[in-house]
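Friendly challenge for the regulars: who can give me the structure tokens for this chain first? No prize, just bragging rights.
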Amino acid sequence: MKKISLLLILSSLLWSQSPAQVIEDVGVSPWGADDEIGTLNMMSEESRHEALLDITSGKVYDLSVEYFVGMPSFHSLGDPPYQYWLTHTPHGTVVDDPNGLGEQMNKKVSYTGDAISMYTHMGTHIDALNHFGLNGKIWNGFTPEEHLGDKGWNKTGAESIPPIIARGVLIDVASYKGLTVLDENYRVNSDDLKGALRKQGVKLHKGDVVLIRTGQAQFYQDASHYLHNYPGINLDAVKWLVEKKEIMLLGADNLSLEAFPPERDDNWVPVHTYLLAEKGVMFIEQMNLEELAKDKTYEFAFIAASLKLRGASGSPMRPLALPIK
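First reply, four minutes later:
Bragging rights claimed.
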């Protein structure tokens, strides 16, 4: 009896000292049961106006990349590459006369038309909140059984993403480390972010758009180099940004924000899942931050809008940065 009692006591002590298992689930929006844009609700007419009032000049930084045949893509997942083809050419229009104007007019007024086909998560783009889920649900508890049809999601689709105007901050982690580009598969942590911000003399504000530079954008024209074991942010870093600093939107210059292959443990969830499904934080991938970094422009008015692709899980975006005082 004494032996059994001792075992029960020891078992109880061991159980009480073991860490509680964290059961993660999708986030419920503080902005209501119908919310589809998560932390972008932090924006208001007043906050947009305030960001624009601080612009100091007409200089504009284009933070997007070009779309071209052979550009980096998620081909390893079986997603389609970028395709471009001509639908009309000046001489072909003369031969075919598709508009019925006749050879003489078609020779006088040349005509070129073209088309593209692409995965929605190629080039500079924003991930919508339906892109990643957790335990069978997406942000705010929406389920595919109720909200995913043959023509896409009827909740949190890319068409719901509003134009974004806010204070933006560049965190140049590569320069902070004394590198032109971070090492292969390097995982940017919260200490890296804090150190870079101290070096830059910049503080984060609630509702900021935060852009992380790894230096990987330098290889964008070379898809195999750009895709190979690229560095990125880790879960510790995004938790610090979201939970401690209350940022509104994230962006980075690599393929998928987080490093690849990602770190894993027993309670691991991808950075994508934590941000999109749990916290309602969207992010922009495959940005070009090289000119901003070269000029050490760390604070700016961030202006961007995506295509309103109904039901889609992501959309191309062309973000701009205008320096502020």
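Residues 1-21 have pLDDT under 50 and may be disordered. Residues 2-17 form the longest helix (16 residues). Your move, everyone else.
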